[in-house]
Specification:
Helix content of chain B: 55-70%
Number of helices of chain B: 2
Strand content of chain B: 15-25%
Radius of gyration of chain A: 16 Å
Number of strands of chain A: 5
Helix content of chain A: 25-40%
Distance between the termini of chain A: 9 Å
Number of helices of chain A: 6
Largest sheet of chain B: 3 strands, antiparallel
Largest sheet of chain A: 5 strands, antiparallel
Number of strands of chain B: 3
Largest interface: A-B, 34 and 30 residues
Oligomer: heterodimer
Strand order of the largest sheet of chain B: 1-2-3
Strand order of the largest sheet of chain A: 1-2-3-4-5
Distance between the termini of chain B: 96 Å
């Protein structure tokens, strides 16, 4: 198993990532961090679309109670949060176009002045199981739900099956 | 060196020059195509990066459209259509609502097989949900 597959996702964006996220930085300076190959860009697009899909599912499910669940604890989290089976299934996996993916984890980060943040980690299923992680900033909403206030890509990496 | 040898040598030389010129032209065309492709990809990347700030700015200017994510979809699409910067010739952009009716699909294409597309969900931009009407 490659070492990269074991390494944790960065909890803070690197300066290069911060520059990439700054709309004032020209594309030529962002290019160094971006995947160059068309195939990788398609994977990045699929995973980015999946992340948005999952945040919507999280919001529909009520959200707040689920924000510290890893791949081994889905059923336990669903039980303690009162999540029904079909909703739980939609929170664990999904599909963008013809590309199925699964949700590896939501990781709640220490609260900051900016509010609650969590990391969402996704992995594509199938022959090219690439992973991506995103930082999500959340605000509490009525009824124990959450509202997403910011979404930032932390990284994309390939992984062998 | 007799006349025949001179003619043959000249023919060989001219043929080699012609081949080299064709290879040079082909290489230049390939470089131009590659540069155009790279520029198209950079433009598309810049557009995708502009989506988040654009929606945040639009939200700051006025109230979020709805507490319903489904009814926020047309608002999101309209903001993207009017707010994203124009593209250079050769790069196309298209917006649509995905079959679920819950997401906007943005698709880019350009010459050389360049194609990217993403699904954008209003929930991911805080446009809907329990407190969206705040």
């Amino acid at each position: 198993m490659p070492a990269a597959q074991q390494a944790p996702w960065p909890s803070e964006p690197s300066p290069a990532q911060a520059a990439q996220d700054d709309p004032g930085v020209c594309p030529a300076h962002r290019r160094g961090r971006r995947p160059a190959a068309a195939a990788e860009q398609q994977l990045e697009d699929t995973l980015a679309s999946a992340a948005q899909q999952q945040l919507a599912a999280l919001q529909r499910a009520g959200g707040g109670c689920l924000l510290a669940v890893d791949r081994m604890a889905w059923e336990q989290a669903a039980l303690s949060c009162g999540i029904a089976e079909p909703v739980l299934a939609a929170l664990q996996q999904g599909q963008v176009g013809s590309s199925p993916y699964r949700v590896l984890a939501y990781r709640l980060r220490p609260a900051t002045a900016a509010g609650t943040t969590a990391e969402l980690e996704l992995q594509l299923s199938g022959e090219r199981p690439w992973r991506a992680a995103y930082r999500v900033q959340l605000a509490p909403a009525a009824g124990g739900s959450v509202q997403i206030t910011a979404l930032q890509e932390l990284g994309l990496r390939g992984a062998r099956a | 060196m007799n006349l025949i040898e001179v003619i043959v040598a000249a023919s060989v030389f001219l043929g080699a020059c012609s081949g080299a010129a064709q290879m040079g032209a082909s290489s230049a065309a390939a470089m131009t195509s590659s540069r155009a492709r790279t520029e198209a990809l950079e433009q598309i990347e810049a557009q995708l990066l502009a989506v988040g700030p654009l929606i945040a700015a639009a939200r700051a200017e006025g109230p979020a459209p709805s507490s319903s994510c489904r009814t926020a979809v047309p608002w999101l699409q309209a903001q993207l259509e009017t707010g994203l910067p124009p593209l250079a010739p050769g790069v196309q952009r298209a917006f649509s609502v995905d079959p679920t009716g819950e997401q906007v699909q943005i698709a880019f294409s350009a010459e050389g097989g360049v194609r990217r597309q993403r699904l954008l969900n209003p929930a991911a931009y805080g446009l809907c949900g329990a407190s969206a009407a705040d």
